[in-house]
């Protein structure tokens, strides 16, 4: 759904901008360029708002009429898209493929009072909802179990790497001995009969197959050093005990498996004993249940609740929406601080984009304008967008950390939060600050020499900042689309990873068959920023309309191709299109900025007598701002409650998540004819929201089958010692190169989202 609605948003922008492009070019470009001019305007600047001379102020009526017309056109499209989104999302929510998933009928609750910190208490509390509760997963403090599970995974990775390295070494040494034997046999061909030579070569190969360890001496076996101190997460060169990697990894897996099995049995006893605890005598929510101090793994204040009916989950979610454990002021304090800090380098980028004005204003910078024209063009046209892109590259990392710090429990919630924060940064720094900085730099000489002409100078020079964004949009539309279709970087990285990291079957499978995903929290804001810039300048500098429409036409075909053939979205990260209504809200931001800027420019406009000449136009723009805000509130009030909730009128169409019956059609995943037993599916549902450390078995160690048969002996030895190993669908050729024919054995039947 997220992929579909992103592509639909691109199509929505094209449909919205196409008539705006044609009308604005036909009306506004002649109005601002024919028989009118202002000092300092040349090239593309003759098409901007500020090029209307003081004797032609009546032409601003065209800008006003089109501003009203374009606003109503955009608002109509926004309502149409919001209505379509709500319809499609509700269909998706009640669709059998989604409604039958456990995730569709499960609610995560946090801040659970101590009184309800048992599975039975939460079951009783929510049993009043339609259909009742099917299962409760109470989050517990698992203490050492997650660390044990991580140690086990690390040991499995080490064993896969060491075993594959051992097989490769054995294969290469076997080939070396075979070649040496062939050369020796060739030299002694005159002394021994051919039959004897054949028997000698065959007996050598057979002995190596029967005793493969003879191929690799102990000094050549994979080894590594342990950290010199136990608390260090890594080892140090020439320090620490040197151990055989295969033997160490096997022992580590066995030890962690035994420890996890013991801990899981204690956890099962704790869960069963908690259901027998007496309930507090009072019904007050803050009353406390007696705490069972004998429990090793105490419950925490969060739980997943799976309901029998989807409507019950939605009712529970809406009931709990008012019980937020954090304050919003604290959540946004760090974000506001970052916004203020980031203003300095972004303002510098905006100033660099207007390097000619800097040269005229500051004499010590005049040498820059004396450089060759190509160099000056690169400094003012290419360097600012590149610097801006580099600055914005580091923001998502920091903003994701802030979202996790404030307590976002899911990845989708983090991405939704990132979208709002990142868009705020983009609008303030990549747009507004750059616009103001570039406009003021252009007006500085006049402001210094004639302070009384500030309104006129600002009205004439602020629109000139659009040149930077024209370059920015062309750069994004042409170079971004071209690189997206060519995919040169992913192609090069594919072969580099395969050469450097393709040492085990699992790594080869991940490189060859793993698909890339999309970070919606950064992709959507970067796209909606272009829409905001275009709407803002659609009247002030109409040439931007055609460029953006063409760019989004290219974006539409690019992303449609990528989502069909290259990109994938895991079900766990699919929000059902919740990024789309946020993107529509961003369009309103563009409308507000456009209307405020136009109102300010109208109020600043002066005729040849230095008197305000467009006050009525400015007043009508203020009226338009009020109408837009009223429409915005009405739209949100009408469709807002329908975005995330299932109405009662559709609840009967939503099927409950049921355990597959014996006659149900079995699902196929990854490989042909790979089906899942009904009991396994039921077990997956029962453990859907349990910490993997509490339920997951040891990951199967996957090594390739070699030509010497060494891998089969290693698998037999490992399985006999209690380490699950397999050589299915993985092979190593005679040159020691690893290749795979399918997924790892422990992922073949994985049906989780």
TrEMBL record:
Residues 333-602 form the CSC1/OSCA1-like 7TM region domain. It is a multi-pass membrane protein. The chain crosses the membrane at residues 60-78, 332-353, 373-402, 423-448, 468-496, 543-562, 583-606, 618-635. Residues 168-222, 653-677, 730-753 are annotated as: Disordered. Residues 188-211, 730-740 have a biased composition (Basic and acidic residues). Residues 105-266 form the CSC1/OSCA1-like cytosolic domain. GO terms for cellular component: plasma membrane. Residues 173-187 have a biased composition (Basic residues). It is found in: Membrane. The keyword Transcription regulation does not apply. Residues 744-753 have a biased composition (Acidic residues). Residues 1-81 form the CSC1/OSCA1-like N-terminal transmembrane domain. PANTHER family: CSC1_OSCA1-LIKE 7TM REGION DOMAIN-CONTAINING PROTEIN, PROBABLE MEMBRANE PROTEIN DUF221-RELATED. This is DUF221-domain-containing protein. It comes from Hermanssonia centrifuga. The lineage of its organism: Eukaryota, Fungi, Dikarya, Basidiomycota, Agaricomycotina.
């Amino acid at each position: 759904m997220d992929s579909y609605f992103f592509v639909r948003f691109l199509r929505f922008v094209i449909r919205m901008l196409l008539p705006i492009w044609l009308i604005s070019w036909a009306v506004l470009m002649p109005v601002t360029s024919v028989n009118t001019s202002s000092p300092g305007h040349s090239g593309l600047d003759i098409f901007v708002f500020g090029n209307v001379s003081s004797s032609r102020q009546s032409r601003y009526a065209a800008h006003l009429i089109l501003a009203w017309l374009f606003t109503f056109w955009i608002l109509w499209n926004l309502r149409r898209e919001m209505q379509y989104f709500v319809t499609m999302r509700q269909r998706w929510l009640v669709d059998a493929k989604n409604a039958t998933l456990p995730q569709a009928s499960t609610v995560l609750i946090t801040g659970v009072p101590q009184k309800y910190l048992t599975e039975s208490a939460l079951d009783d509390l929510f049993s009043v909802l339609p259909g009742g509760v099917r299962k409760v997963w109470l989050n517990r403090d698992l203490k050492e179990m997650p660390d044990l599970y991580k140690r086990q995974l690390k040991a499995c990775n080490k064993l896969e790497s060491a075993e594959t390295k051992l097989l490769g070494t054995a294969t290469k040494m076997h080939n070396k001995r075979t070649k040496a034997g062939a050369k020796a046999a060739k030299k002694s061909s005159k002394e021994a009969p051919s039959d004897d030579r054949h028997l000698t070569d065959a007996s050598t190969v057979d002995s190596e197959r029967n005793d493969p360890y003879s191929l690799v001496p102990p000094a050549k076996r994979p080894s590594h050093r342990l950290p010199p101190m136990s608390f260090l997460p890594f080892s140090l060169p020439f320090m620490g005990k040197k151990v055989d990697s295969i033997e160490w990894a096997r022992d580590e897996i066995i030890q962690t498996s035994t420890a996890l099995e013991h801990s899981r049995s204690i956890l099962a006893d704790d869960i069963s004993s908690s259901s027998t605890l007496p309930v507090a005598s009072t019904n007050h929510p803050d009353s406390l249940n007696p705490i069972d101090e004998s429990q090793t793994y105490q419950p925490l204040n969060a739980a997943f609740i799976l309901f029998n009916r989807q409507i019950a989950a939605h009712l529970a979610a809406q009931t709990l929406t008012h019980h937020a454990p954090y304050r919003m002021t604290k959540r946004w304090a760090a974000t506001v601080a970052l916004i203020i800090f980031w203003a300095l380098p972004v303002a510098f980028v905006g100033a660099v984009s207007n390097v000619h004005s800097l040269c005229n204003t500051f004499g010590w910078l005049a040498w820059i304008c004396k450089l060759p024209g190509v160099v000056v063009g690169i400094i003012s046209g290419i360097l600012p967008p590149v610097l801006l892109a580099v600055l914005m590259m580091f923001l998502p990392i920091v903003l994701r950390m802030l979202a996790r710090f404030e307590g976002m429990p899911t990845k989708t919630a983090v991405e939704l939060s990132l979208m709002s924060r990142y868009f705020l940064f983009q609008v303030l720094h990549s747009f507004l600050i750059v616009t103001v900085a570039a406009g003021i730099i252009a007006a500085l000489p006049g402001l210094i020499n004639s302070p009384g002409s500030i309104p006129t100078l600002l009205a004439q020079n602020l629109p000139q900042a659009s040149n930077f964004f024209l370059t920015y949009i062309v750069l994004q539309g042409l170079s971004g689309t071209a690189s997206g279709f060519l995919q040169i970087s992913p192609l090069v990285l594919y072969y580099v990873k395969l050469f450097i990291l393709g040492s085990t079957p699992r790594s080869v499978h991940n490189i060859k068959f793993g698909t890339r995903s999309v970070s919606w929290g950064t992709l959507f804001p970067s796209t909606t920023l272009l829409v905001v810039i275009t709407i803002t300048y659609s009247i002030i500098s109409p040439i931007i309309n055609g460029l953006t429409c063409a760019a989004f036409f290219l974006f539409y075909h690019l992303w449609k191709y990528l989502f069909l053939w290259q990109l994938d979205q895991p079900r766990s990260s699919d929000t059902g299109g919740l990024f789309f209504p946020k993107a529509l809200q961003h369009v309103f931001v563009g409308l507000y900025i456009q209307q405020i800027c136009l109102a300010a420019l109208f109020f600043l406009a002066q005729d040849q007598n230095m008197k305000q000449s467009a006050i009525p136009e400015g007043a009508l723009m203020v009226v338009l701002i009020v109408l837009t805000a009223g429409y915005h509130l009405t739209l949100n009030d009408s469709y807002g409650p329908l975005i995330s909730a299932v109405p009662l009128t559709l609840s009967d169409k939503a099927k409950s998540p049921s355990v597959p019956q014996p006659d149900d059609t079995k699902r196929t995943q990854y490989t042909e004819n790979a089906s899942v037993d009904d009991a396994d599916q039921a077990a997956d549902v029962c453990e859907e929201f349990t910490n993997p450390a509490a339920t997951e078995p040891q990951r199967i160690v996957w090594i390739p089958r070699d030509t010497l048969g060494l891998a089969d002996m290693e698998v037999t030895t490992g399985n006999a010692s209690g380490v699950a190993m397999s050589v299915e669908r993985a092979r190593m050729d005679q040159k020691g190169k690893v290749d795979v024919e399918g997924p790892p054995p422990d992922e073949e039947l994985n049906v989780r989202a």
